[in-house]
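User: Hey, quick favor. My workstation is busy. Could you predict this chain's structure for me?
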Amino acid sequence: MNKIRISAVAYTNTKPFIYGISHSELLEKIDLSLDIPSDCAAKLINQQVDIGLIPVAAIPFVPNANIISDYCIGSVGAVNSVFIFSNLPVEEIKSVRLDSHSRTSNNLAKVLLKFYWKKEVAFTTDINTATDAIVLIGDRTFGQKESYPFVYDMGEEWMNFTGLPFVYAAW
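Assistant: No problem, here it is.
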C-alpha cells in the first residue's frame, strides 16, 4: 500500500499539526515532509505530495484543489510571525523585498500597501537589492523586531483595515 504523502510547513506555528500527525496511529501510512511554505505549495502543485498545508495564494494553482479541513494557519489580529520590517515609516516606503518563502504574505503586503496605506511601491525578490522594507515570515522573524525602527504585523494591519481575520495557509 502506498503511503499518503504530506507536506507541512516547518515553522513553530505548525507544531500542533505535526504533533497530531506524528502521534497518530496512522503514522506508518504517512510520508511526512517538513518544508518552507512555498515548497509545500510547489510539491502539491506538482503532485509530489497528496496533501499539503499550503499558502492560500497557491490554492488556485493546485489541480482539483479542495480545502480538506477547518484547521489552518490564521489569525484574528496580530500573528507575530508575518511582518513588514522597515527602516522608514510606511508613508515613506518606496521599495519592498518580498519573502522567497511566501506567496500569501507577499500578496497580503501588496494589498495592504496599495489599498490600506495607498502606496505604490516597487517590489523585488532579489536579496542583493537594497530596499526600504522587507516582508519576512515564520520563525525567521523571531528576534527581528528590535532590528528595525518600524514593524508592521500584517495580521494586525489586515484586521485594522478590514475588521476580518486572515488565513495564511490551509490544508
